[in-house]
């Protein structure tokens, strides 16, 4: 029994120690999958719309979306500057990760490097970093298309983040009206509905996630207001349902 309890104690301590790393891993993994999927979607749309010159089509589309982003009124941050910062962060992270991986594989001193068949790996002071730079230069057209797709996704992310003040407003209105409805329901001894509350809670989260994924995947987003305003209003309505059917007694 003592052994079982000590084993349980160690496993609990281990989970408490590892959960930040596990959470961070899944956040990074999901983020890479979403961003990579969005980039592949943009490449596929460009191939379909302009098979002769997809890079020129992507650049033209990016410029149109940047012009649309510039029309949004800044509240906290300038949307154009935010898009540039997001795009630069993703680009620099990708280059840093690829360069670091190649340096790890090619720069580690030891018997493997000393006995490598390639003279470049044996004698160059930084074969991994040099090879990474050459790789990015030689990819040419394909790499440029990925870079443009990255900044297109960054622009759309900035559009979505520009909705946050409107989302906060509709959420506050929906919550206030919902709590007033809850107060009337309590005063009249009305029934609460945990089913509606939980479905509205899941619906508001799901609406935000699916709308963001749709923004990344659509071929064009030159009219963000027609997308962002209905999403904010829909979330506000779902929050109103949550407030109205919250627990009768706290």
Automatic annotation (TrEMBL):
The keyword Cell wall biogenesis/degradation does not apply. InterPro entries: DtrJ-like. It holds the Pfam family DtrJ-like. This is DUF4400 domain-containing protein. The keyword Iron-sulfur does not apply. The chain crosses the membrane at residues 21-45, 158-181, 202-219, 225-246. Signal peptide: none annotated. It comes from the Bacteria. Keywords: Membrane, Transmembrane, Transmembrane helix.
């Amino acid at each position: 029994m003592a052994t079982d309890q000590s084993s349980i104690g160690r496993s609990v301590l281990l989970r408490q120690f590892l959960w930040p790393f596990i959470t961070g891993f899944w956040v990074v993994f999901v983020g890479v999958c979403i961003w990579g999927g969005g980039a592949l979607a943009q490449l596929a749309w460009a191939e379909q719309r302009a098979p002769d010159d997809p890079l020129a089509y992507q650049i033209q589309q990016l410029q149109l979306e940047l012009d649309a982003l510039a029309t949004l009124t800044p509240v906290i941050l300038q949307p154009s500057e935010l898009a540039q910062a997001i795009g630069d962060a993703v680009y620099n992270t990708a280059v840093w990760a690829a360069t670091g991986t190649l340096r790890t594989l090619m720069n580690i001193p030891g018997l493997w490097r000393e006995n490598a068949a390639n003279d470049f790996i044996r004698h160059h002071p930084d074969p991994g970093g040099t090879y990474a730079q050459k790789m990015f230069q030689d990819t040419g057209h394909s790499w440029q298309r990925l870079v443009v797709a990255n900044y297109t996704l960054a622009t759309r992310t900035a559009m979505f983040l520009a909705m946050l003040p409107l989302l906060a407003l509709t959420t506050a209105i929906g919550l206030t009206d919902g709590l007033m409805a809850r107060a009337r329901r309590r005063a009249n001894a009305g029934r609460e509905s945990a089913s509606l509350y939980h479905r509205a809670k899941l619906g508001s989260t799901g609406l935000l996630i699916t709308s963001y994924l749709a923004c990344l995947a659509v071929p064009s987003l030159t009219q963000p207001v027609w997308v962002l305003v209905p999403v904010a209003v829909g979330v506000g309505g779902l929050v109103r349902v949550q407030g109205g059917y919250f627990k009768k007694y706290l």
